[in-house]
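Troubleshooting log. The previous structure file for this entry was overwritten by mistake, so regenerating from the original sequence record. Sequence copied from the archived sheet and checked twice against the printout by T.R.
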Amino acid sequence: MDERAALRHHGDAETAPGLADFAVNVRADGPPPWLRKRLRETLDELGTYPSADRDLQARAQVARRHGCEPDEVLILNGAAEAFALLPRLNPTHAVVVHPGFTEPEVALTDAGIRTTRVLLDEADGFTLHPEHVPPDADLVVIGNPTNPTSVLHPRHTLRALERPGRLVVVDEAFLDAVPGEPESMIGSPGVLVLRSLTKTWSLPGLRAGYAIGDAETLQDLARSRPQWPVGTLTLEAVRACCEPDAVAEAAEGAAALAEQATLLVAELSRLPGCTVFQPSGPFLLVRLPGAASIRVRLRERGFAVRRCDTFPGLTDDHLRIAVRPAEQAKPLIDALRTLVEAG
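Regenerated output below.
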């Protein structure tokens, strides 16, 4: 696999019908019944173009949820759309912090923008050291919690990246899966925050997310976007998932997820030679000697996990495993134990 193909490899490429999916970080097989109902009720509007009023309603609900203004919100076709838009900000030197989501680097380098990788060290717990970012970087992209390491960087550390003339882009796609949503950078000056509904609300096929930041930055980001860039169903999904009852439901889910992660870490840590990195999100990173072969053999036994050698800074001894309820995780643990003990 060449480097660009590796950067464009994602967990959905690991899945297939009949496999138990631990490769994708989507929480369930589909959205909850109440959200399905909201979307069905919106189908009658598909005979007309998405309205400016509906866009404003969605932005206003996001603003209420996060304590900002509607003009500081941009509704996106999935948070990943924002990465494709970043070159429109015309940075002269971009930095992408790795290991991390790889689409930002693809978008920036494809646009011919000078892009530098800052690699975090596994031996240091993938800790961010802001001083390692080149001082002339005018765009810095980092995830929080970071995919695939599941590290949650402290807000004060991220604030240290800020400086005049620099935009810090913080991908918080998984932060609503962390109890209390700590360390969020929403409201911090000079920061563009990206949020996704894909994972918590199981909407990868709909593409729904949003950006929060300075109104002028958002206008620049959206420059030359096609007319009607976001569909009616996406606008309704964003609005619905930012309402108070939905936010409370997501918080309950995050608490349950944290308990499931604790149990999964304990079980994996008992496997000989397995190093587990403490998760902050709905997935965890493990290092296991021979993981590349184990991944293939797991697949033969009906389990999909995410290879991690496609992430800069990681190797084929790393795997990413989605957190699932104990009854779903137990067969995977049993299969892993059998393979590890067999050598």
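DSSP finds eleven helices and twelve strands in the chain. Archived copy saved in two places this time.
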